[in-house]
Amino acid sequence: MPSLTEKRHSNQVTVLSETLFNQLKSIHHLGEKELDWLKKAAVLHDIGWIGGGKKHHKRSRDMILKCPYLPFSGEERLVIALIARYHRGSSPKNTHRYFKDLAPALKNRVAWLSAILRISDGLDRTHLGSIKNIRCRLTKNRIALILIPKSIPIEDRISGLDKADMLEKYSERKIIIHG
Fold first, then answer.
1. CB atoms closer than 10 angstroms to residue 28
2. Do 111 and 79 form a contact (C-beta atoms < 8 A)?
């Protein structure tokens, strides 16, 4: 059974993911179905910790794919599992198991949603729920994330930047974090 801290982290990552998704709509052009997938993946992204920390992102993917109690359809299940898988570790690659078999449009959706989940997870590295809100400022070359804190440990800010790589790649913009 997940601890209270883990549930809070899952909830915080879900809220941050939804906030970023909504504020980045003008560049990712995704809709409500994709937001639903993102929120489900955010809730489940760390489920793989049940088997230990090493490669928990891949274990999360496998658990989502195999769990008969999750009410997801075939394609939805696969997409949610892959979004959770890419919340850490490498970016999606055409050689990766499951990802390589997706249609190009679905690969793009998984990549964008994973990028959003990844940075959201990084912004709650300490699992303390330190960010109250985020505001995004978009320019042609940058995405500035203005963090509205309850209090922001330096570790969360650093981890958020460390995990900004995929969002930088898919948005083709430099990520800046203020707050």
1. 20
2. no
pLDDT at 67 over 80: yes
Sheet holding 131-138, edge to edge: 131-138, 142-149, 174-178
pLDDT exceeds cutoff 70 at 82: yes
pLDDT (tens digit per residue) in 134-179: 999 999 999 999 998 876 667 887 888 899 999 999 999 999 888 6
Cα 77–82–85 angle (5° rounding)? Answer: 125
Rounded to whole angstroms, the Cα distance separating 119 from 123 reads 6
pTM: 0.86
Fold designation for 4-178: Hypothetical protein af1432 (1.10.3210)
Q: Domain limits of the chain?
A: 4-178
Dihedral of alpha carbons 99, 72, 85, 178, sign: positive
SS3 43: helix
Tokens of 24: 């980045």
Q: Could you give the CA distance from residue 146 to residue 9 in angstroms, rounded to a whole number? A: 20
